[in-house]
Amino acid sequence: MVTGGTKYDAIVIGAGHNGLVAAARLARTHGRVLVLEAGDRIGGAAATSEIVPDYRAPAVAHLLEGFPRRIERELKLARHGLRYAARDVPTVALDRDGAHIALPRNRREYAAFSKRLPKDAEAYRERVALLRAQADIIAPLLGELPPRRDDPNVLKRFLRRAVLRAEWQGRSALRKLMHTLPESIGDRLDAEFESQLLKGVLAFDATLGGGEGPYAPGTSFRAVWREAIRMQGQGVRQPLGGMGALADALAAAVEAQRGEIRLGARAVRILVENDAVAGVELSDGAVLYAPLVVSALNPRVTMLGLLGAARLETEAALELRYAAPAGSTAKINLALETTPVFSGLAPDLHGARLVVAPSLHELDEAATECRNGGFASEPVMEILVPSLADASLAPEGHHILSIIVHNVPFEVEGGWEAKRETFVQKVVRTVDAYAPGTADAMIAGEILTPPDIERKYGLAGGDWHQGDLRLDRLFGFRPSPAFGRYETPARGLYLCGAGSHPGGGITGLPGWLAVEAIGAAKGGE
Amino acid sequence: MTPDTAPRKEEPTEPNRADIDPQDEQAPVDPALFEEKPAAPPFERTVLTTPLHLVTSLESRTNRWTDWNGYTVPEVLTGLEDEYRALRGAAALMDVSPLVKYRIAGRDALAFLQRLVTRDIENLGVHRAVHVVLCESRGLVLGDGLLFRLGDDEYRLVTEETHLAWLMDSTEGFRVRIEDVSATLGTLSLQGPLSAFVLMHAGIGDIASLAPSAARWVTIAGMPVYLSRTGASGDLGYELWSDAEDAPHVWRWLVECGGPLGLRAAGFSLRELARLEAGLPRAGTDYLSAFAAIDARDALPPAAIWASPVIDLDKGVFNGRVALRRRADEPPARRIVSLAIEGLEPLRFSALSLEGRIVGTATSTGFSPALGTNIAIAVIDSEVAAAGALLAAAERRDGLSVRETLASVRVLAGPARSHPRRLAVPAPLRP
Fold first, then answer.
1. Nearest residue in chain B measured CA to CA from A308
2. For labelling alongside B431, which of A122, A167, A359, B75 has CA 20 to 30 A away?
3. B136 contacts in chain A (CB < 8 Å)
4. For residue B317, is it within any domain?
5. Does the complex come out with an ipTM higher than 0.90?
6. Are residues B371 and B251 located together in one domain of the fold?
7. Looking at the complex, does the CB of residue A310 fall below 8 Å from at least one CB of chain B?
8. pLDDT digits (tens, 9 = 90+) for B109-131
9. CATH value at residue B74
């Protein structure tokens, strides 16, 4: 057992992308920074994994949707090796009969879109305009610290700004937003569109990562939220070398500031002396000292596990006790020895996000199945062929399929051991229906059920968002009111993971803003 | 259903003990031994009697009963004046079993309690008791009680109201066990200037040396009793904690030994009058638990309820610390005080006014025979506490007729009555 212990200026627990963003930003202003990672690689859910040698796939997440330009620029990620294989990746709704719908990104594509769906084209244009307008109202609030809860004036200013932004858009904007907040996306889409397929893909995007079906209240707002998160970034992008390339660039940025990243170092306890953080104890007994500890782990794990509920007041501990995250998304990566061909899909769209969500009804069924501990016979999912844009991922002529399956329960009836094979077969059969020959071309595969994601990539509950993106769990209420501004009752201990504002997805914003909160607390002293 | 009307069940015949071979490992096992007995559903009974119900019923000459925490207890046994004379001149014996008692034990019991209460109990010795205050995260009072340390890792918390949900919510992260032991303990309160003398006559040696707030195990008529020098009378007094089965016998023995010395059994009204004279606010009556207060003004911080509550802001994390530290310098808007209204006849009053404006409420009122005045515990706006000239709208009853008058109110600096005997060491055996 090591007793001496080394002294750092700051310790970041967890080398997920949020932890690395926080570490890289801290290293510029706070001196010696150490990042502790329990696993044997960095990146958390932003990682590239090898299915079999020479076939590499984005391990969990596969596209960057809301990674802000300012983080990329300020951390000089381009200089540290971040390149993109594809920018502005389009979204295609796959149709069983080959009449796919590509969601238009520009005027030219809109013309094709309105030819395919003459009745829904105008409604779609209006919907996108409304979604953008509503996202515009909240987007600026996502990129900054949530308001303090103990000062009613701050909250008033915060709400007033949102209201003002809404009023600039005209009289009806606020009314529409008030209508959107509690509404379900299914009801909204049923009222606006005819095409089942279009409704399916729009509802898929609004519910992905959450446990609810399209008819659950509040899902309409999730679509707005997702749009606002996209506004933080620079369009949907695919990093060159898989998602792990982002983590590598972030790690390089940390190391360029003479920060240190230690793998295989599991933090087991956060040490506190005189109400202030003193350091971190590792599983091997080593003690590392620092006056500032920033945890990218799940808030519940950090506060109840590492710090200990005993160091919190009863009510603060209670707030976290029942906020256990539960994931509902699985990941399947397949290695193919041929190029997958989706029947009826234009060759230039094969690199797009391919969404399998035939209708609202099927999404709703899948959500119900998931709640009852099963999975749908035809799972709803998002497919990406990352190797089309990024040849480095697979040998020439061979390809990777990266599939995110929605509505998969954490605990399946009968246990995952027994159901794993059935599940893969159902997914492969579904993919095969859209891209005939996929099943035969498969040479290897990797499946990550929600428990696997928890075990392998450290996402508590296998939840990509680390807590539902619900209106009552956002801003200063994320993860719970007592911890809503990254700070905790222990002086010098901060949260910086996706469990904090503004939430999940690969945005780096929780990590970025946590450091801002640290700076604000320092300035306030 | 009484035992007489219950359907008679055929008792299974017990095997003859002589037939049982304790060395026989192959002997058939009676599965009935391992069957779980269905627990009685909680709250099946809401009207409860204390372990002392039978003996107090025998003492009762008035048949006046009242409800205390769901238990039926005597309001007055013989007469309030008679009982009061015994309390202040000799000794009074009361059944206080309805008090809520929690056993808190386990490796982290001390740490758990340190987080639960506002005062530092690190140095609380075994067989000692302290007054503790429970707060929630806004620094408002949930309740108060007496905390006994029974052993190294074993405590007993005695409160007026139930706090089980709050205690259980607070256990996360602590290796501690909480049990509501209210029903398993019979509690007797022996108060008055001759209480030590009575205990000496009951056969307890060296009673005078027991310090205030200290406790010890004693044997009374062959029964083990935990005896503590505590009580809510503002005078010398003891409380006796025993098994529920033993409690009636302890009671009878004390009445037998103390009767000739002037000991009288007394009811709940006397306890209320005694604590009113001693200026002890009662949870649920004089102040409300912060969780029960619907009007936010009714939830009070500790400084509003007690003149000098013990709050150790530097002892580490405890519930309410952040909020209490923030408002450490800020005086509370309302506070609880003792009042007196001169006059030799009992009055009924509650609203307190200053220049026609209502500034407070008398929450407990009573007539103190010793002081010859009406006294009350009241919650009033802090700024008028020093102003004086408070008026109470009082009702004077004369037969069936009633008159309403405005009586002038005096705010007392401390409790209406407090005797140095309470803290005297050694405890005086003679008045």
1. B173
2. B75
3. 314-315
4. no
5. no
6. no
7. yes
8. 999 999 999 999 999 999 999 99
9. 3.30.1360.120
* Chain A residues touching B111 at Cβ < 8 A: 310
Mean pLDDT in consecutive groups of 10 residues from the start of chain B, 431 residues: 48 58 77 78 79 93 93 94 93 95 95 94 94 93 95 95 94 93 93 93 90 94 93 92 94 93 94 93 93 90 91 91 89 90 85 88 92 92 80 86 88 87 86 65
Exposed/middle/buried for residue B4 (C-beta within 10 Å: 0-12, 13-18, 19+): exposed
Contact A314 B137 (CB under 8 A): yes
Question: Does B223 fall in a domain?
Answer: yes
- Asked if B169's CB is within 8 angstroms of A313's CB, the reply is no
Distance from CA of A343 to the nearest CA of B (A): 56
Closest alpha carbon to A16 in A258, A272, A251: A251
Listed as ranges, residues in chain A with pLDDT below 50 are 1-3, 525
Domain end marker among B242, B266, B290: B266
| Helix, coil or strand: residue B266 | strand
Specify whether the backbone of A124 is left (phi greater than 0), alpha (psi in -120 to 50) or beta: alpha
Among B219, B240, B266, the domain boundary falls at B266
pLDDT digits (tens, 9 = 90+) for A373-421: 988 888 999 999 999 999 999 999 999 999 999 999 999 988 999 999 9
Domain that holds residue B350: 333-416
**Do B202 and B67 belong together in one domain?**
yes
With contacts defined as CB-CB under 8 Å, which chain A residues touch B137?
313-316
Cβ distance B276 to B233 under 8 Å?
no
Q: Are B270 and B80 in contact (CB under 8 A)?
A: yes
Tell if the CB–CB gap between A313 and B137 is shorter than 8 Å: yes
Residues 123-142 of B with CB under 8 A from A: 136-137
Cβ–Cβ contact B284 with A under 8 A: no
State if pTM tops 0.90.
no
Comparing CA positions, the residue from B332, B129, B118, B320 lying closest to residue B239 is: B129
Domains and CATH numbers, chain A: 6-43+242-324+466-524 (3.50.50.60), 105-232 (no CATH)
